[in-house]
Structures are given as C-alpha cells and as structure tokens.
Design the sequence.
C-alpha cells in the first residue's frame, strides 16, 4: 500500500472564491484512517482554515455527511484505503446550499422535520399520572427501523427529486412520519397524512430508491414513502366513495 | 412555535440538465421513467390490433403487413426492450413498497419477487394458449 493518498477537497471561502473550487492535498494513508481523519489531518497540519462538521466519529451524530467521490457518505465511516490509490474527491453534501468549504446550510431540513408532527399524538387525555403506555416487543419492532434515523441528510443529498424541487418534504421526514404512524401509542396518522398527501409530500417521490441505498442506518425511507403513497391513495378513494359523515 | 432562524449567506449549486448520465442508478431511473412512453405505445398498438381484428379479414391483413415494415419493427423491438426494463425494475421495487405479513411474519422480498414472475409466467402461458391453441 502507498503511504499517502491524494484528497481533492472542495473549498468555498465566500471572501475569496466566487464559487466552490477543488483544492488538492496529500494525506498519510493508514488502514484505520477514515476520510474524516484525512480532513482532520489537513486541518491540523496543512490548512487550519478548512471547515467541516463532525462530532462523534462513530456514525451516531450524523453531522459528518459529505459527498465522497460523488456518493453521499458519513465520512467517519468511510475508509480512505477503499479509495486507494486515490484521489479521493470530497465535496459538500449535494443538494444543499454551501455556507463554507464542506459546510452546508441545513435550515431547510430543520424546517421540514417538524412539519410531519414527529411526536406521539393522542386523542385522549391520558397523562403520565395514569401510568405508562405498555408496548409489546412486536409493537416496538413495527416502527423500530424507522426510529434509527440520525438526521445525517445523506438521503436528501442522494435524492434528485429534492435536488430539482427543494419543496419536496424529502425521505427522512417521511420516514419519521412513518415511525410515529406505526407506533402503537400514537393516534396521529390522520393529521400527518393531511400534511403528506400534498403535492410536496409523498407524491413528489418518483421512487428513485437512492435514499434507501445511501442510508447508513438502514432506515429504508423509500419503503416508507411507498407505504405512505398506498395509505394516501386509500384515503383518496375513501374520500371519493364515502359521504363525509362516514369517513375515517 | 419554532425559534427564529438566522439565514446565513450561502452558495447555491446548480444541477445540470444531464445530472442523470453520470450515475448508473440515476440513468436506470430515467430510463425506467422513459419506458412509460413505450408502455403507452404498446397499449395503443394493442388497441389498433383489436380494431383491425374487429374490422374484418382485409383490415387484419393490412395491419399484419404494416407490422412487418422496417420502421415499425425497429420501434417495436426498442419498445420491447424498454418494456422488459419496465417490468423488471417495477417487479424489483414491489417488495420495497409493500409489506406483506403472513401469520405475523414479514414475507421476504425474494418470495414476493418470485411470486410476481410466477404470476407473469402463468398469465403469459394462458395468453399463449388463448391466441395460439384455442
Ligand atoms: S433516513 Fe437514513 S440517510 Fe436519511 S437522514 Fe435518516 S439516517 Fe440519514
Ligand atoms: S462524526 Fe458523527 S456520524 Fe460521523
């Protein structure tokens, strides 16, 4: 194995560049080094102004997402050696506006998440004083997969629909809606459907399926969206066939 | 409800018209979308065929004549290729879109996939029997 590898890192310094530009660096190539380690090496040894987000280094916080050789990846879980002999191209997460270097503006994502009402909605007045909600292992299993999301936004970077139409509510938000819909304690699916049945909701999705392929937590947002479409279609048929009083 | 957000100045990257050619999965997706046109074409073609059959021997013969013209042969060959792509990709997507449970257990995707191909074979065999044998 070579002892170093070339990294081509996209830099955008608003005071210096009118648009993002690739800059070449050379970093040590070690078997246990991730792309994030390479970036940290550049920052520590070559250019301390290089900006990027990270925190946990163990695929939990979801903050180190970037496009590596064109694929949205968690850089802390992507090994440099997999790209030997290089170069490794590191760009800011696709489909998001770039604030500086590898840092993207996530405001849009943060505004979208609460739109699907991702909390347990009840139609009764049960409070903690009345005791806890009991849930069986099977009931937990029904939604567990969709609760594994770490908000890394890789699915948004992989989604051409979101890239072309930023109004699309997007994969993770819909998977999150499904997470609460499938929760046996929740009664809010009707309210969420009202949000997601809109054009920018599930119908924006044309089932490219890339969100599911890139998801590091196997959440399967594409699956969630298709299941939601089925629900939305059933609701529309019901609304068409039944008089108002009989619905729901 | 939510805290006020500070908008930071940022650089908006553009998506080129040919965003779909660089990546295999995007390319396949666009081809799958495109295949719908050929699905529609075959529906129209089938209706024309039915109309020709209903129109008597002469119309039917004319239809067969036209079907062997080079242009139609090429269109139909390309169309068939797209139709196969359409079928294969949509079959592959079904297990992702549907969660089937049998006796409390989730039916594995491969089983659903296999079931679709079996169904396709059965229907095809029936049509073959209907057209050729009956
Ligand atoms: S669904 Fe997966 S890819 Fe999308 S934000 Fe959640 S963990 Fe990341
Ligand atoms: S640094 Fe936390 S997920 Fe990569």
Sequence:
């Amino acid at each position: 194995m070579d002892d170093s590898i070339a990294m081509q890192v996209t830099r955008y310094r608003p005071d210096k560049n009118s648009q993002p530009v690739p800059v070449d660096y050379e970093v040590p190539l070690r078997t246990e080094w991730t792309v994030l380690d390479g970036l940290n090496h550049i920052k520590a040894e070559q250019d301390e102004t290089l900006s990027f987000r990270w925190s946990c280094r163990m695929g939990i916080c979801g903050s180190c997402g970037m496009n590596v050789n064109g694929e949205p990846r968690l850089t802390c879980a992507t090994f440099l050696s997999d790209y030997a002999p290089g170069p490794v191209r590191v760009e800011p997460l696709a489909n998001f506006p770039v604030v500086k270097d590898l840092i993207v503006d996530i405001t849009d994502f943060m505004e979208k998440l609460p739109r699907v009402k991702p909390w347990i909605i009840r139609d009764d007045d049960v409070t903690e004083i009345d005791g806890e909600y009991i849930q069986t292992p099977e009931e937990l299993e029904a939604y567990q997969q969709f609760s594994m999301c770490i908000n890394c936004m890789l699915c948004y970077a992989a989604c051409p629909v979101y890239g072309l139409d930023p109004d699309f509510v997007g994969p993770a938000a819909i998977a999150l809606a499904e997470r609460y819909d499938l929760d046996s304690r929740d009664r809010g699916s009707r309210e969420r459907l009202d949000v997601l049945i809109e054009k920018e909701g599930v119908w924006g999705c044309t089932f490219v399926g890339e969100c599911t392929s890139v998801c590091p937590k196997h959440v399967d947002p594409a699956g969630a969206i298709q299941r939601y479409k089925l629900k939305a279609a059933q609701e529309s048929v019901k609304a068409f066939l039944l008089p108002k009083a009989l619905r729901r | 409800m939510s805290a006020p957000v500070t908008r930071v100045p940022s650089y908006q990257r553009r998506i080129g018209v040919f965003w779909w050619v660089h990546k295999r999965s995007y390319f396949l997706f666009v081809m799958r979308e495109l295949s719908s046109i050929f699905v529609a074409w075959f529906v129209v073609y089938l209706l024309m065929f039915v109309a020709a059959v209903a129109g008597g021997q002469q119309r039917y013969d004319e239809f067969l004549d036209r079907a062997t013209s080079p242009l139609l042969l090429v269109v139909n060959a390309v169309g068939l290729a797209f139709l196969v792509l359409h079928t294969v990709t949509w079959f592959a997507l079904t297990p992702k879109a549907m969660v089937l449970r049998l006796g409390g257990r989730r039916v594995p995707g491969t089983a659903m996939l296999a079931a679709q191909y079996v169904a396709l074979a059965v229907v095809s065999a029936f049509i073959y029997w209907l057209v050729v044998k009956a």
Q: What stands out?
A: The pocket of FE2/S2 (inorganic) cluster (ligand 2) is lined by residues A 54-57, 59-64, 74, 76 (CB under 6 Å).
